[in-house]
Design a protein that fits this description.
Elements lengths: L1 E4 L1 E4 L2 E8 L17 H30 L1 H14 L2 H14 L3 H17 L4 H4 L2 H16 L2 H6 L5 E5 L4 H5 L6 E6 L7 H8 L4 E3 L4 H4 L5 E5 L4 E4 L3 H22 L15 E6 L4 H7 L5 E5 L2 H5 L7 H15 L4 E4 L9 H4 L13 H7 L1 H15 L4 E5 L5 H20 L9 E6 L2 H5 L1 H7 L2 E4 L1 H9 L17 H17 L2 E4 L7 H9 L4 E5 L2 H11 L2 H13 L3 H15 L6 H7 L1
Helix pairs in contact: 1-2, 1-6, 3-4, 4-6, 12-14, 14-17, 17-18, 20-22, 23-25, 23-26, 25-26
The protein binds phosphoenolpyruvate and magnesium ion.
């Protein structure tokens, strides 16, 4: 038995069999094949090449139909490489001469090719190294039978073990067979973690070397509350965890009771609790769990669902109308696409950015791709005729960006008017405050926006210069840092002064300790992952705003984020001990 500590990002406990997803080329084993098996090994390699070429025919045809001949040409290049004797023959020779396994020969040959491309002066060649990696993975998939193909054949409850996962990979998991995942990399508020939460898939990230330790097919337990992964558990440990799973079930049932009760503090203040969603279906769970509507729809997830092609105006519109149908008159706040950084664009980019978190992301990305932005705004406005819809822009840095975005929105309204298309002329336009720059100039933004939504996930990242996806600095990622607390206070003050609504939709709003602080700092609207809604409502109903304000005052007196975090945790335990009953107490120890 081995116990590994990672970062808990999606709660729950599951037991399953390990499935190692990656083909890390650096971890492909080398072995010697006997002289009489060498030709079989060459034949195995030839079959893998044939299968890869057949895959590429399919991919090419699909790309040509959906993306046009120019884009599809990239797959002709892939086919050309796999048919090139100068690449393929030396691999066969290496298998015969050195009597090594085909996987090893593939890795060596493709590595050499990638190095040769990287040395080229012409940047067009250098960008081809990703294609080479992609091709090597395709051939290795056929040799080793891994990746999506094997995933599709899973028949038992599986725990996915991977170096890292993209949000789209996670979103595509089959929930029937995949019960949880663990990764080497990743941080608490990475978008993969957010998807795991949305899918209610227990997950631990930042386990550093789990891919080196876990063995395929062996039993493992994920404890998504404590961030533990137990490999090859002893029978007593398995028994203990089966008990925890039962206790959790009972606790969840008791939480369900608060769904229909009002979200009012003991001194009668209404705290509005909304849900954060990534997929329209989550609107239903948001309402079932007691949310008052959707406070953050991460609309960029539409890009992950449609494979390689961009969502059309109709794709956007259909998703928004589905949300409205499921919300039965409750409000829907759509955030325009927040692409860039760890979401989607880097893996798709011809030239990946050197510093994507500071690059062309969020509203910058939309303003740089006006046709796509217009498509989305048209869909949002059309949906606004069918139910209560608000729109907000992510990661706005300058007032100029807000004005530009509003200007484009105005143009789209005029076009729809000309066409006689209905929309809500009074649609509220909000700004996400996710950067210290925006927080410090909040009074200016408050003059031109109708509401604020504080994105603490990014606000913490950019204030403390801590990558939210990097497990190596995760201990520095502290929402209770005095600088963050001060910025939140400034934002709330600016909103109150201008009499506009301010909410918080970062993950911190769903964590009980920080929710207490946020309420104490003046927030009356919180938007949280669906799973957190009942916990949060129970907290709201157990405290008074006076208590929250006292706690916030005390936190503001601390110079250290560690003291602040410890104090908040202690206070939460005192105020809502029932939230830490039984298993839950253990979970947070
Ligand atoms: C945030 O930054 O807090 C936020 C809600 O946006 P996202 O997590 O999608 O970046
Ligand atoms: Mg953000």
């Amino acid at each position: 038995m081995q116990i590994l500590q990672g970062i808990p990002v999606s709660s729950g406990i599951v037991i399953g069999r390990v499935f190692v997803l990656d083909h890390d080329p650096h971890r492909v084993a080398r072995w010697t094949v006997s002289p009489d098996r060498a030709e079989d090994e060459v034949a195995r390699f030839d079959t893998a090449i044939e299968q890869s070429l057949a895959d590429l025919d399919g991919v090419y045809a699909e790309a040509e139909a959906e993306l046009g001949i120019e884009t599809a040409k990239i797959f002709l290049f892939h086919k050309g490489m796999l048919s090139d004797p100068s690449l393929i023959d030396p691999i066969r020779e290496m298998i015969r001469q050195e009597r090594v396994n085909a996987e090893h020969a593939v890795v060596v040959a493709f590595d050499a090719l990638a190095r040769a491309f990287r040395r080229q002066r012409n940047s067009a060649f250098r960008t081809k190294t990703d294609d080479i990696r992609d091709l090597a993975t395709r051939v290795l998939d056929h040799l080793m039978g891994s990746g999506p193909a094997r995933l599709a054949e899973l028949e038992h409850p599986a725990i996915i073990v991977a170096t890292d996962l993209t949000p789209s990979q996670t979103a595509a998991f089959d929930r029937e067979t995949i019960v949880g995942f663990v990764t080497d990399l990743g941080g608490r508020t990475s978008h993969t973690a957010i998807v795991a939460n949305a899918l209610e898939l227990p997950a631990v990230v930042g386990c550093r070397n789990i891919t080196m330790t876990a063995k395929a097919g062996h039993t493992a337990i994920i404890d998504g509350d404590r961030g533990l992964v137990i490999l090859d558990p002893e029978p007593q440990e398995l028994e203990k965890y089966r008990g925890f799973i039962e206790q959790r079930r009972t606790y969840q049932l008791s939480l369900a009771e608060v769904a229909d009760l009002p979200s009012i503090t003991r001194d009668g203040i209404h705290i509005r609790i909304f849900g954060n969603i990534e997929f329209p279906e989550e609107c239903t769970t948001t309402i079932e769990k007691g949310g008052e509507g959707v406070g953050l729809y991460r609309s960029e997830f539409l890009y992950f669902a449609g494979g390689e092609s961009e969502p059309t105006e109709e794709d956007h519109f259909n998703a928004y109308t589905e949300c409205l149908d499921r919300l039965h008159g409750k409000p829907l706040t759509i955030r325009t696409v927040d692409l860039g950084a760890d979401k989607y664009t880097q893996s798709q980019a011809v030239t990946p950015e050197r510093n994507p978190a500071l690059g062309l992301r969020s509203i910058r990305y939309s303003l740089a791709d006006k046709p796509a932005f217009v498509r989305q705004l048209r869909a949002i406005l059309r949906a606004s005729a069918l139910g209560p819809v608000k729109v907000m822009f992510p990661m706005v840095t300058t007032i100029g960006e807000l004005r530009q975005a509003k200007h484009i929105l105005g143009d789209v309204m005029e076009d729809l008017d000309d066409l006689g298309v209905e929309f809500d002329r009074g649609i509220e336009v909000g700004v996400m405050i996710e950067l210290p720059a925006t927080a410090l100039t909040a009074p200016t933004f408050a003059q031109e926006a109708q509401f604020f939504s504080i994105g603490t996930n990014d606000l913490v990242q950019y204030t403390l210069a801590v990558d939210r996806t990097n497990e190596r600095v995760s201990s520095l990622y502290q929402p209770a840092h005095p600088a963050v607390v001060q910025l939140i206070r400034m934002i709330v003050k600016a909103a109150n002064k201008a009499e506009i609504e301010v909410s918080c939709c970062g993950e911190a709003a769903g964590e009980l300790d920080y929710a207490l602080l946020l309420m104490g700092l003046g927030l009356r609207t919180l938007s949280v992952p669906g799973n957190s809604i009942p916990h949060l409502k129970r907290l709201v109903r157990s405290v008074s705003i006076q208590q929250c304000e006292r706690i916030a005052r005390k936190v503001r007196s601390f110079y250290s984020e560690v003291l602040a975090a410890t104090y908040l945790r202690d206070q939460t335990r005192k105020l809502v001990p029932e939230a830490f009953d039984g298993r839950a107490v253990e979970a947070r120890d």
